[in-house]
Amino acid sequence: MTHAEPELPPLREVIAAYELRARKSLGQNFLLDLNLTGRIARAAGPVAGYRVIEVGPGPGGLTRALLAVGAEKVIAIEKDTRCIAALRPLAEAYPGRLEVIAGDALTFDLATLGAGPTKIVANLPYNIATPLLIGWLSPVQWPPVWDNLTLMFQKEVAQRIVAQPGSKAYGRLSVITQWRCDAEILFDVPAKAFTPPPKVTSAIVQITPRAAPMAAIAQADLERVTMAAFGQRRKMLRRSLSGLGVSVPDLLALAGLEPTARAEEIDVAGFCALAKAYAGLRETG
Fold first, then answer.
1. Are 28 and 56 in contact (CB under 8 A)?
2. How many whole angstroms from its chain centre is CA 169?
3. 253 contacts: CB under 8 Å, gap ≥ 6
4. What is the pTM of this model?
5. Is-contact 56 22, C-beta < 8 A?
6. Domains defined along the chain, listed by start
7. Residue 234 above 70 pLDDT?
8. 123-140 pLDDT per residue, tens
């Protein structure tokens, strides 16, 4: 069910009224194309009955779209005090359905919101997009509090998230994401859709948690072995893993991997086996 949208001023008027010049230090590029914001909001799937967390709402283009398609509540986390003021009229237009939290999304604990059906939909500030994603992928309890993530990244980052073995984009971010989730690129967003236009194309990625991770391993172990392997991705595993502090021949034998293989050739299941073997050798070593 969609809700009738109240009469609201054009976003350019909001930007002018509150002097919202985009700040590079905050990674701000405002998305003003209402056709695109609507498409992103719909891409998240049905939002009726859900609270939707948005990071960096800016003047509120995507916020409007999420409210218009029927989100039960939008919780917008915003660091820029100018934008917080600009969102107040929108909160008044949708009584009880928009909560604006002044704060830094990097340090915001989703657990403080309590239980309830949750989706995260955001045009992420480029400068914090990857650490935000890693944080959302890292809760101790799994499945996480969110049902899915529908997020905008620089296209290069989006390609790394969904990359498969054998491609140049495949790396640590691919493995960490795909260990616990399914991920796909939904569509691209051209630079000209933003004010100011960035120098890169963006892409919308949807990430859905698996009921259980691909393997029962510690994320810290998976991060450690992927850091070593991809830190020297041109080298064979027998060389790139030598800094882990365990016997590399034993490690590769336990994981069932060839010593002459390179990081980009190993699939996510292979890295999970490597992390499990690494944990076992550390405990016995």
1. yes
2. 17
3. none
4. 0.93
5. no
6. 11-209 (3.40.50.150), 219-284 (1.10.8.100)
7. yes
8. 998 889 999 999 999 998
